[in-house]
Amino acid sequence: MRIDILTILPGMFVGPLEEGMIRKAREMGLVEINVVNIRDFTTDKHHVTDDYVFGGGPGMVMKAEPIIAAVEHSCRWSEGEGVNPRVILLSPSGEVFTQEMAVSLSSERHLVFICGRYEGVDERVRQTVMTDEVSIGDYVLTGGELPAMVITDAVVRLIPGVLNKEEAAEEESFSMGILEGPHYTRPREFRGMYVPEVLVSGNHQLIARWRRKEALRRTWHRRPEMLRDAVLSPLDRKLLAEIWLEEGAAEN
Ligand code: ADE
After folding, report:
1. Lowest mean pLDDT segment, chosen from 113-122, 130-139, 219-228
2. Rounded to an integer, what distance in angstroms lies between the CA atom of residue 235 and that of residue 3?
3. For position 247, which CATH number holds?
4. Does position 139 have pLDDT exceeding 90, yes or no?
5. CA of residue 91 to ligand 1 center, whole Å
6. Alpha carbon nearest to ligand 1 atom 2, residue
7. Which of 53, 119, 145, 221 has its CA 20 to 30 A from that of 24?
C-alpha cells in the first residue's frame, strides 16, 4: 500500500510516522508513506496556499490549485500501477470514521489524504479530485493532520503482516464489535488487588469463557448500544443472561 499525506504542516508528522508499529510496517516494506508539502505545488512568488473567502467573512480558505496539483502529482503513481486511488479529504463535515471504514481502506493500494486547514478548502477540490470526505468525530480540530494520522494508524495495523498471527486472528474473530475486557500481567498481587484466580488456573476453556464474559460485561456497562449490532453466539447470550442476573443482584 502507498499512502500520500498532503499538508502545509509536514513537520507535524515527524514523530508519529517514525515510531512503533507504523515504523515497523514501513521498514518491512508493507506500506510506503509520503508526506507531501502542498506549498511545493504553488506557482506564485510567495508560495501562497490560502486566500480570503469570496462573499466576505472571517478566516481563510485553502486555495484549490496547489491542492489539486499535489493530488494529481500523487495520482500519477496509481495511474502507472493501474489502480484507483482513494482521495480522502479530512473535514468535520465528512462521514464519521469507523473500524468498518478502516477495514475497507486497508485493502486499497493507494490512499491520498488532503489535510484541510483554516476555514476549509475551496469547494472545487471536492468537485474534482476528492473521492471521500471523512471526519474522525463530532468535534473541531485545527486541521486534518491529526485525523490523517488517526486514520493512517487504524488502517496500517490492519495491513496483512503488520499484526502478528495471533493478534490478527483475534482481530478477525470474536473481538470485533464489543469492547475489550480486563487484562493483567505480573505481579499476581499489587496493593492488595489480585489477578482473578481463573486466569492462573491453566484451564484454557474456562479462561476463554471468563474473558468473553468480562468483555461482554464491560460493553453492557459502557456501550450497551454496541450489543445490539454485535454478532453474538448462543454462548454470548447465555453469558449476557448470567451478567444480567449478577448485575441485577449487585444493584439490589
Ligand atoms: N478537521 C477539523 N476537525 C476535523 C475532524 N473532526 N475530522 C476530520 N477533519 C477535521
Report:
1. 113-122
2. 41
3. 1.10.1270.20
4. yes
5. 4
6. 141
7. 145
